[in-house]
Amino acid sequence: GAGRLAVGWSVPRGEGVVSLFSASLLPSLQVRALGPVRGHASGEPLVSLRFTGGLPRGSLLSMAWGDGRVTLAPLYDAEG
Fold this sequence. Notes:
mainly beta; globular
């Protein structure tokens, strides 16, 4: 099955951004860009990324920043 992959980017004196991808291992590694998830504009580095799965309609992406702030992004599964 497909899963999600998040990659964090922090730019000095800029807004942190997390790039979100769909990833599958079978039949071979396939990665497809889904788009960015905005952080916050404090210029703080990204400290932690974590997915919480098992939610009824998707998952929750938690992003922790160097100043102690946490950004939560609900990610809904596409209906199909």
